[in-house]
Structures are given as structure tokens and as C-alpha cells.
Q: What sequence folds into this?
């Protein structure tokens, strides 16, 4: 559950920053 929460936090932060990070995170975690 902790890892899931961290994934959501990182994804949200990446979206807020508005960088290519969201795509990278989605590729890594999905």
C-alpha cells in the first residue's frame, strides 16, 4: 500500500510540474 501511495504522489507531483515525467512514471509503474 505504501508503494501504491508513493506512486500516486510521484505521479501527481509530476503532473503538477508538467514535464515528460508523467509518461516516464506511467511506463515504469504500468
A:
Amino acid at each position: 500500500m505504501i508503494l501504491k501511495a508513493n506512486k500516486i504522489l510521484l505521479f501527481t507531483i509530476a503532473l503538477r510540474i508538467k514535464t515528460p515525467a508523467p509518461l516516464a512514471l506511467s511506463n515504469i509503474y504500468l
Remarks:
- The longest helix spans residues 2-17.
- The CA atoms of residues 8 and 16 lie 12 Å apart.
- Helices lie at 2-17, 21-29.
- The radius of gyration is 9 Å.
